[in-house]
Amino acid sequence: xxxxxxxxxxxxxxxxxxxxxxxxxxxxxxxxxxxxxxxxxxxxxxxxxxxxxxxxxxxxxxxxxxxxxxxxxxxxxxxxxxxxxxxxxxxxxxxxxxxxxxxxxxxxx
Length: 109
Ligand code: FES
Prior knowledge:
The chain is built from two helices and five strands, in the order E-E-H-E-H-E-E.
């Protein structure tokens, strides 16, 4: 039996990754779980993103989206404004990646 005893994982589904950086340094990475927040992905990757309100209000969890997609809510939360979005800011506590992402855990500045 060729592959009978191994896990029958079908490689047709490509694993997507969320990767966390500080500058050029890779801090950790984890598999994309659609519906999980950036902070939850960071925990899975062993990376700490500080949080406070966890509701999009305070901005403590602000990170920089280097690549990939983290859709914004229709109504911007108090912790984010248009200027910060232009700088690729996202809020880790409410932002949910939908594809491969690279994230710098620091806010844009
Ligand atoms: S922890 Fe307050 S905006 Fe995310």
